[in-house]
């Protein structure tokens, strides 16, 4: 097993860099709290994290400890961590991509055309069972990577989780369109499996919350969707397939409960047409941020108008929604631009 070099350990334990990171956390916390920014009298923030990964794509599956050490060594060599801008230094363990939870439920997960894929389960909806975490090989790998990060004893880097996703996303991953049909025709069976999935995801989140220091713990895409410490995240991609009524009744309680496992609530990622859920999003007490990209970014106006004032938007610009358009719509408030976008900073009114 590899060991972190003294020079890398020194850089990734630099108190000056840790204090700079924590000041940016404070700026983000002010935004979430609706407070005037103590560092800059403007309400728009830009952030661009770094998350280097070793060249061998299969190393995290064979030697997760060595993969973590190589990530940390690469991170220590990244000049951007000295930037005056917010450049969150991240290590994120990405095994099985968006099919991490599928694998734990016994799905046939395979690598093809540069990405992980999964075949649907053949078991009937309503029969899903919680995996045995004591013997699950996928979870064992994730724990080994986590403990290697902790054993390296560096306080600067953020640790991003595997894609724990969400109950609805995983339900569709496991059963495809049959999951959606079951939510209409076999509601009790669908609710059973959704609960089992959500219970597993929440169990894993709780383990990470207990294990990783709060100032270093971030959910998925940690380098772009960095929140202040104590905030969680889930994936809401497939919510665009549901009516507002169905999401509000069957899914929103599960999502809100998951985010409630974090001290400060958390974020839902959206990438399609989801505005039918704005009333449900507004009512979710633990939902503090929405991350919009691609098609979802086009609806920025509706989210800002329909959500609570303590709910923040993380927005990726795209064709049809530029930074300049977003600033005009938002008036520079309640919004974070990730991905290193050099957004002009417009004073608040």
Describe it for me?
This protein is of the alpha/beta class and 349 residues long. It is built from 13 helices and eleven strands. It has helices at residues 6-11, 15-33, 59-62, 64-76, 100-104, 137-152, 167-175, 177-185, 187-211, 244-259, 278-283, 300-306, 323-330, and strands at residues 44-46, 90-92, 108-112, 115-119, 158-160, 217-218, 232-235, 266-270, 287-292, 312-315, 335-337. Helix 7 crosses helix 8 (177-185) and helix 7 crosses helix 9 (187-211). 45% of the residues are buried. Residues 341-349 have low confidence and may be disordered.
Indicate the percent of residues in helices: 40-55%
Question: Which overall shape is indicated by the principal axes computed on the Cα atoms?
Answer: globular
* Strand portion: 5-15%
Distance from N terminus to C terminus (CA atoms, Å) equals 55 Å
The largest sheet has its strands arranged as 1-11-10-9-8-7
> Could you spell the SSE succession in H and E letters?
HHEHHEHEEHEHHHEEHEHEHEHE
DSSP strand tally: 11
Report the mean per-residue pLDDT as an integer: 92
Pick out the low-confidence regions. Answer: 341-349
> How large is the radius of gyration?
20 Å
- Sheet/helix structural class: alpha/beta
């Amino acid at each position: 097993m590899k060991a972190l070099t003294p020079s890398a350990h020194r850089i990734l334990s630099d108190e000056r860099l840790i204090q700079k990171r924590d000041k940016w956390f404070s700026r983000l916390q002010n935004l979430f709290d609706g407070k005037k920014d103590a560092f800059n009298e403007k309400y728009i923030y830009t952030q661009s994290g770094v998350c280097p990964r070793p060249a061998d794509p299969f190393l995290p599956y064979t030697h997760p400890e060595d993969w973590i050490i190589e990530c940390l060594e690469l991170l220590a060599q990244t000049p951007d961590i000295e930037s005056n801008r917010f450049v969150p230094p991240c290590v994120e363990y990405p095994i099985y991509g968006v099919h991490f939870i599928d694998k734990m439920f016994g799905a046939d997960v395979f690598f093809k055309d540069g990405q992980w894929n999964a075949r649907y389960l053949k078991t009937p909806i309503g029969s899903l069972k919680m995996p045995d975490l004591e013997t699950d090989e996928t979870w064992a790998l994730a724990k080994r990577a986590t403990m290697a990060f902790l054993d390296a004893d560096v306080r600067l880097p953020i640790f991003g989780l595997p894609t724990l996703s969400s109950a609805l996303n995983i339900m569709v991953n496991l059963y495809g369109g049959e999951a959606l049909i079951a939510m209409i025709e076999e509601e009790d069976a669908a609710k059973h499996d959704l609960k089992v999935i959500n219970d597993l995801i929440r169990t894993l989140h709780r383990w990470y919350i207990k294990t990783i220091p709060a100032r270093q713990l971030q959910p998925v895409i940690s380098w772009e969707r960095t929140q202040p410490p104590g905030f969680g995240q889930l994936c809401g991609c497939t919510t665009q397939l549901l009516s507002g009524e169905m999401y509000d009744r069957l899914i929103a309680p599960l999502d809100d409960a998951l985010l409630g496992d974090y001290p400060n609530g958390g974020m839902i990622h959206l990438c399609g047409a989801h505005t039918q859920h704005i009333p449900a999003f507004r009512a979710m007490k633990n939902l503090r941020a929405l991350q919009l990209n691609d098609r979802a970014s086009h609806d920025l106006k509706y989210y800002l108008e329909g959500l609570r004032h303590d709910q923040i938007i993380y927005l990726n610009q795209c064709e049809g929604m530029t930074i300049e358009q977003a600033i005009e719509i938002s008036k520079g408030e309640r919004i974070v631009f990730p991905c290193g976008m050099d957004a002009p900073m417009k004073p608040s009114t």
